[in-house]
Amino acid sequence: ESAASNQESIHYYKNGEDEAHLERLIMLDELKQAISDDDGQLFMTYQPKLHMVTQKIDKVESLIRWQRKDGSWVNPELFIDLAEQSGLIVELTAWVVNTVVSQVADWQNKGINLQAAINVSAQDIAFPGFHSALVRTLKKHNVAPSLITIELTERDMIENEEKGIKALQNLKEVGVKISLDDYGVGQTSLGRLKMLPIDELKLDKCFILKLDESQKDQFIVQSSITLGHQLGFSVVAEGVETLDSLNLLKEMKCDHAQGYYLSRPLKADLLEEWLKEYYEKN
Ligand code: C2E
Ligand code: MG
Ligand code: MG
Ligand code: MG
C-alpha cells in the first residue's frame, strides 16, 4: 500500500516536472515569436541615473519588459534566464541593442543628451558577431560609441574569462563603455577586479536598499567607492529608494545614483516627461 502511494507521488512529481518543462517550452516559443514579430509585447524601459555633482540626468539604464498577448507580465529575470539557457539570448540582445541605439539616436536628434546602458550576458560577449553588430548599429544610427555602456555582472565576466576580457577590450577600443553590474555579490577577487577592462563599478542594490539604516552597509559602500575611484572607475549605486540614502551616497562621493527614489524604469516618452519635470524642479 505504502509502495503504491509512493509510486503515485513519484508519478505526480514527474508530471509536475513535465508541466514546468512544457510551460518553459511554450514560453520560449512565445518569446521567439515576440522577438521576430516585434509587435510591442517586448519593449524597453529606461531608468535615470543622477550625476551627483552636476545634479543632471546624463545616463539611463535600459531594462526590458515583456507583456504577453494575454496581458500577463513575465519577470525579466525569468525570461532572460530562459533565453540564456536556450541560446535565444543572442537574438534577444540583438533586438535590445537595435531598440536602445535607435532610441539614443532619437534623443540626440531631439537635443536630449543621454548615455544608455545595455545589460548583456556572457554568451553575448562570447558571440563573435556581437562586436560587429553593435558597431554596425551605432554607425547606422550615427550614435557615438561613448554613448553606450555595456553592463555585465561578475558572473558574466568570469565565464569564459580570457575570451571575454579580450572581447571587452575590443569594445573599449572602439569607445563603448563597460560597467560591472551587481558588484559585491559575485566572486570577483580584488586581483581580478584590477585586471578587468571596466569604466564603471555598479554597487549591488543589496548594499544600498537599507543604506540609511545599516552602518555595515555604509562601511561596505564607502570602501567600495574609495576602491573603485582608486582603480580609476566611476561608481554607481543602484537601488536608491530614499533621500537619506541619496544624501549618504553624495557624502561618500558616489558618482551616480539610480533607484526608485528618483524614478522607476519608464518608457521613453514617459521618461522625457519625467525629465522635463525634473529640470523644472532642479
Ligand atoms: P540589473 O541589471 O541589476 O537591473 C537592476 C534591477 O533593479 C532592475 O530590475 C530594476 O528595475 C531594479 N531597480 C531599480 N531601482 C530599484 C530600487 O530602487 N529598488 C529596487 N528594489 N529595485 C530597483 P528588473 O528591471 O526587474 O531587471 C532585473 C534584471 O534582469 C536586471 O538586473 C538584469 O540582470 C536583467 N535584465 C533586465 N533587462 C535586461 C535586458 O535588456 N537584457 C538582459 N540581458 N538582461 C536584462
Ligand atoms: Mg544592470
Ligand atoms: Mg544591477
Ligand atoms: Mg541584477
Structure report:
By secondary structure, the protein is α/β, with parallel strands linked by helices. Helices cover 53% and strands 19% of the residues. It contains 11 helices and 9 strands. It has helices spanning 2-37, 76-86, 89-109, 122-126, 129-140, 154-158, 161-174, 190-195, 215-230, 243-251, 268-281; strands at 42-51, 57-67, 73-74, 115-119, 148-153, 177-183, 200-203, 234-238, 256-258. Strands 1-2-4-5-6-7-8-9 form an 8-stranded mixed β-barrel, surrounded by 4 helices. A hairpin with a 5-residue loop joins strand 2 and strand 3 (73-74). Helix 1 packs across helix 2 and helix 3 runs parallel beside helix 5 (129-140). The termini are far apart. Residues 1-9 have low confidence and may be disordered. The structure holds ligand C2E and magnesium ion (3 copies). Residues 181-182, 202, 238 line the site of one magnesium ion.
Descriptive tags:
binds ligand C2E, Diguanylate phosphodiesterase, eight-stranded mixed beta barrel, globular, alpha/beta, disordered N terminus, 282 residues
Give the topology.
Elements: H1 2-37, E1 42-51, E2 57-67, E3 73-74, H2 76-86, H3 89-109, E4 115-119, H4 122-126, H5 129-140, E5 148-153, H6 154-158, H7 161-174, E6 177-183, H8 190-195, E7 200-203, H9 215-230, E8 234-238, H10 243-251, E9 256-258, H11 268-281
Parallel strand pairs: 2-4, 4-5, 5-6, 6-7, 7-8, 8-9
Antiparallel strand pairs: 1-2, 1-9, 2-3
